[in-house]
């Protein structure tokens, strides 16, 4: 039960520390400015994180910067407890203190800004901090916007980012050939809104592999089936980014739609255990727990994984993690009025703020030791980057771009116990990823479902449609109709060929008039007169013609004296003879029925 504290502590965590200003000369004076919400809602709200921040300041004062006077000051606006309420007001609070209140209070200049937790606030504060040359450190700000350090030159992120998450997600998707991915996310939940939109952007603009993501944000809905239907028309891999209760509702909807039989893959992200988004379990103590358990067999969870210490790394601060947890909870209760639940731990995001403050203190100490200007926040920031130290909950490794190299694990629910366990592990320090155990894809499936089903996302490929059992009658009917059509076409073709053949036989192309034959004088033999059996034909005076002109062509003439019947058998014979080419110059040209002459 909360002691009813509704405002920030008005006294320093170490009240006697400020008296040392009268007794000791410091080489440098600096203020750590903390800009966070105050209401116990967000993961790094001051009610939850205030104790860890004050513990970090204690370590800085006593161990890392004993020769530097380190002041800290916390600002917040009453009633602002979530990101959509906060928006850009944090920038106003920061600038008001840095340029007005700090001077009026006689506080040292701001040397480090801790926070904020919200993307829009961090974006505006990041621009101002860069102009101020003041380091700004946060365990939030997962957006890809802050990857560009040519703009956000003094921003250091000690928590998870979409940049590092997408690397792990790409590795998992590539292993199974997944390029079509649907992203369904709560657009009114600030954390999931940023995560969903940025993950879509990372997939869409991926350089090495062409991805086909589908962006499906939703707001204030209770029926998720239209979104699942739309997603199924494009993909079989769904990222579901929502709080725990909404996720369970979506998974039960997928169960009702028959999507949890192993043909689909559902993915979600749970950075760490945090009351802010709920307990990601299928159990809700209702009549649908068993159905939810079956649905969750197809759910895979991306989660931040603490890095293990490497050699030569030493921890700074409390060595006993359980003792540190207990102390943070005690400070939260006594100074900030927040009571942690019995099963509620201090989140990783809070410890990442703690570790970030210590990282800054080491960088400032090195800057002073090297004789450089400690007020040059840009230089101090550069010393915070591209290094790793042992933190209170694992290794804190910051890359050359000022972002944490996070380790992740992919979790799958054990069918026997119903508990999510690690199956695939990604190390952010460049170590190869490794499989711990095989994935249960649901319904006894041993292999991951394909990127696209054989029959397509909408089951509309023609061959698959005809082969389905329920459409066997359609297949049979189409086959029968098709066979009948083929037979009719063959019959029609035979009739047509017969008709064309008879028409060609009765064609009179071969009939020639005897009068059209013009004998050539130098090729005519007059040894004897050739009598014609047809008196009606004119007598050309030809005895034996061997060469003549017919229709402007030179022809050879062969005379047949015996009678020929002009019947079908003869016509077929003539047709065949006319199609024979002995060579390019010899073929049947025509027949004359006066004296039966054949012209070649």
TrEMBL record:
Indicate the transmembrane segments per the record. Answer: 474-496
Q: Which GO terms describe its cellular component?
A: membrane
Checking InterPro entries in the record gives:
ANF_lig-bd_rcpt, ANP_Clearance_Receptor, ANPR/GUC, Peripla_BP_I
- Main location as per UniProt: membrane
Cell compartments where the protein resides: Membrane
Q: GO terms for molecular function, please?
A: peptide hormone binding; signaling receptor activity
Q: Which UniProt keywords apply?
A: Glycoprotein, Membrane, Receptor, Signal, Transmembrane, Transmembrane helix
Protein source organism: Ramazzottius varieornatus (Water bear)
- Residue ranges of the Receptor ligand binding region domain? 50-415
Keyword match Signal:
yes
This one is known as Receptor ligand binding region domain-containing protein
- Which membrane topology term applies here? Single-pass type I membrane protein
Q: Which domain of life is it from?
A: Eukaryota
Q: Which GO biological process annotations does it have?
A: signal transduction
Q: Which PANTHER family match?
A: NATRIURETIC PEPTIDE RECEPTOR 3-RELATED, RECEPTOR LIGAND BINDING REGION DOMAIN-CONTAINING PROTEIN
**Which taxonomic lineage does the organism of this UniProt entry have?**
Eukaryota, Metazoa, Ecdysozoa, Tardigrada, Eutardigrada
């Amino acid at each position: 039960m909360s002691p009813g504290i509704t405002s920030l502590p008005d006294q320093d965590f170490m009240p006697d520390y400020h008296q040392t200003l009268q007794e000791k000369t410091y080489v440098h004076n600096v203020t750590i400015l903390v800009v966070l919400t105050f209401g116990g809602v967000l993961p790094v709200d001051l009610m939850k994180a205030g104790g860890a921040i004050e513990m970090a300041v204690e370590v800085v004062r006593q161990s890392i910067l004993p020769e530097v006077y380190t002041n800290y000051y916390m600002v917040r606006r009453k009633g602002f407890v979530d990101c959509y309420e906060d928006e850009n007001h944090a920038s106003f609070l920061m600038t008001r203190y840095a340029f007005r209140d700090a001077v009026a209070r006689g506080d040292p200049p701001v040397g480090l800004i801790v926070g904020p937790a919200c993307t829009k606030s961090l974006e505006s504060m990041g621009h101002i901090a860069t102009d101020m040359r003041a380091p700004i450190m946060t365990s939030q700000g997962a957006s890809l916007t802050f990857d560009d350090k040519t703009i956000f030159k003094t921003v250091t992120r000690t928590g998870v980012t979409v940049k590092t998450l997408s690397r792990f997600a790409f590795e998992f998707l590539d292993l199974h050939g997944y390029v079509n991915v649907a992203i369904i996310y709560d657009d009114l939940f600030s954390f999931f809104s940023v995560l969903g939109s940025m993950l879509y952007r990372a997939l869409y603009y991926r350089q090495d592999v062409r991805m086909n993501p589908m962006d499906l944000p939703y707001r204030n809905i209770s029926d998720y089936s239209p979104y699942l239907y739309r997603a199924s028309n494009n993909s079989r891999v769904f990222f579901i980014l929502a709080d725990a209760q909404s996720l369970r509702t979506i998974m039960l909807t997928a169960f009702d739609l028959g999507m949890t039989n192993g043909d689909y893959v559902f993915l979600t992200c749970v950075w760490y255990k945090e009351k802010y988004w709920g307990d990601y379990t299928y159990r809700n103590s209702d009549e649908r727990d068993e159905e939810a358990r079956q649905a969750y067999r197809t759910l895979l969870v991306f989660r931040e994984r603490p890095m293990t210490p490497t050699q030569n790394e030493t921890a700074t601060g409390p060595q006993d993690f359980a003792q540190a947890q207990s102390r943070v909870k005690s400070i939260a209760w006594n100074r900030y009025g927040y009571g942690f639940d019995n099963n509620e731990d201090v989140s990783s995001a809070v410890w990442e703020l703690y570790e970030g403050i210590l990282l800054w203190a080491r960088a400032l100490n090195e800057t002073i030791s090297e004789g450089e200007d400690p007020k040059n926040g840009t230089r101090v920031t550069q010393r915070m980057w591209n290094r790793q130290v042992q933190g209170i909950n694992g290794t804190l490794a910051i890359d050359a771009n000022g972002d944490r190299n996070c380790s992740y694990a992919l979790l799958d629910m054990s069918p026997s116990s119903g508990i999510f366990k690690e199956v695939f592990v990604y190390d952010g320090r460049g170590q190869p990823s490794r499989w711990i155990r095989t994935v249960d894809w649901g319904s006894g499936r041993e292999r991951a479902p394909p990127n696209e089903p054989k029959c397509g996302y909408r089951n509309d490929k023609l061959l698959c449609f005809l082969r389905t059992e329920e459409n066997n009658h359609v297949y049979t009917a189409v086959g029968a109709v098709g066979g009948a059509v083929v037979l009719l076409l063959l019959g029609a073709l035979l009739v047509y060929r017969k008709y064309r053949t008879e028409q060609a036989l009765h064609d009179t192309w071969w009939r020639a008039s005897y009068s059209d034959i013009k004998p050539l004088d130098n090729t005519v033999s007059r040894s004897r007169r050739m009598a014609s059996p047809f008196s009606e034909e004119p007598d050309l005076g030809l005895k034996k013609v061997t060469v003549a002109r017919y229709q402007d062509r030179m022809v050879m003439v062969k005379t047949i004296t015996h009678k020929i019947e002009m019947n079908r058998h003869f016509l077929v014979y003539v047709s065949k003879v006319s199609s024979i080419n002995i060579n390019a110059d010899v073929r049947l040209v025509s027949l004359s029925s006066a004296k039966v002459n054949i012209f070649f």
